[in-house]
Write a structure and sequence with these properties.
Organism: Streptomyces hyderabadensis
Keywords: Oxidoreductase
Order of helices and strands: EHEHEHEHEEEH
Strand order of the largest sheet: 2-1-3-4-5
Family: Belongs to the NAD(P)H dehydrogenase (quinone) family.
Low-confidence stretches: 1-6
Distance between the termini: 26 Å
Pfam family, one: Flavodoxin_2
Number of strands: 7
CATH superfamily: Flavodoxin domain
Radius of gyration: 18 Å
Protein name: NAD(P)H oxidoreductase
Length: about 230
């Protein structure tokens, strides 16, 4: 693992969305700006823009049981970006209480056996991870508590800690849609009227504030001045 001085820490910000004008992409850019302001060198990885293929292939795992196997050139390049990072921040829309296929495929292909796990001393040991998930559900929807718990279990415990990360946390950003959404007791999706004008601008400002607070808490937990 590449070592960095306190003035040269690197943050890998991974954005998993197919539209550059999405709220997810906007949040990733704002997060990158916040990390730069905190003194990080930022590597912004837009998986869709870079044409990353999330499908595992035989070149990625020519011999699964061999920890020293040669990975595909594409995966090897992405592994280098992960190794160079002190912190990794993934920004993504929540699909079915999980990450989209684009991000899951990146983890499947890049966080491969012999690289991210399967060693007595993890290569990713000591790194820190922040997952920022954007959800359409409203903050007062009963589903959000279970959603956050499930994401923490799958992403922090099932992936980051399993791969040796020193710290991992999930920031769930609710109210990401312009129409409030909730599911009633019968399973019906209730969609409210679209929020527009000044009210929508205020909603965006509040969303940005909540996203910033997640990043600042993440930095504060590391002892980085916010």
């Amino acid at each position: 693992m590449t070592q960095h001085s306190s003035k040269a820490r690197t943050a890998l910000v991974v954005v998993a969305h197919h539209r550059a004008d999405s709220l997810t992409a906007h949040t990733a850019r704002r997060t990158a700006d916040r990390l730069r302001a905190a003194g990080y060198r930022v590597d912004l990885l837009d998986l869709h823009a870079e044409g990353f293929d999330p499908r595992m292939n035989t070149a990625d795992q020519p011999d699964w049981g061999n920890r020293e196997k040669a990975y595909s050139d594409e995966v090897h390049a992405h592994m280098g970006r992960v190794l160079d990072a002190d912190v990794v921040v993934a920004v993504f829309p929540v699909y079915w209480q999980s990450v989209p296929a684009l991000l899951k495929g990146w983890i499947d292909r890049v966080w491969n056996y012999g690289f991210a796990y399967g060693r007595s001393k993890p290569r990713l040991a000591g790194k820190r991870m922040l997952w920022l998930g954007l959800a359409g559900a409203t903050a007062d929807d009963a589903v959000t508590e279970g959603m956050h718990s499930l994401l923490e279990a799958n992403l922090s415990e099932g992936i980051a800690y399993y791969c040796g990360f020193a710290h991992s946390t999930v920031g769930l950003l609710t109210d990401a849609e312009d129409r409030p959404q909730r599911v009633d007791a019968a399973g019906n999706l209730l969609v409210g009227d679209a929020v527009t004008g000044a009210e929508r601008e205020a909603q965006y400002a509040d969303f940005d504030r909540r996203a910033r607070e997640f990043v600042e808490k993440f930095l504060a937990d590391e002892g980085v001045a916010a």
